[in-house]
Automatic annotation (TrEMBL):
Family recorded in the similarity comment: Belongs to the UPF0125 (RnfH) family.
Record protein name field: UPF0125 protein D4A39_05870
Gene3D superfamilies: RnfH-like
Extent of the signal sequence: none
Domain of life: Bacteria
Alphabetized Pfam families for the sequence: Ub-RnfH
PANTHER family: UPF0125 PROTEIN RATB
Organism annotation: Alcanivorax profundi
């Protein structure tokens, strides 16, 4: 009997370039396996996407290599932040207070 296939998506984005790859994978495929099968890492030179944080629909998954995907799920590959958003907000508030 043939493996049951499910449809999933893999997404990664930079400010200047975004990719969303849809693919059919065997049931039981993990997030990390889907990233590899998608070929998305070849489209982003200089990024080691396999070591990046990953999530499903905005929720970080601690162990992508163990998380089996469900039909319709979208694997999101997260890139590290260059600056802490809390510190940025605090800095902007301080600058606004000083100006005005």
């Amino acid at each position: 009997m043939a493996d049951t296939l499910i449809h999933v998506e893999v997404a990664f984005a930079l400010p200047e370039k975004q990719r969303l790859v849809g693919l059919d994978v065997p049931e039981g495929t993990t997030m990390l396996e889907a990233v590899r099968l998608s070929g998305i890492s070849e489209q982003f030179e200089g990024w080691d996407l396999e070591k990046a944080s990953m999530g499903v629909f905005g929720k970080v998954v601690a162990n992508p290599a163990a998380h089996a995907l469900k039909p319709g799920e979208r694997v999101e590959i997260y890139r590290g932040l260059k600056a802490d958003p809390k510190l940025n907000r605090k800095k902007r508030a301080q600058e606004k207070a000083e100006k005005g």
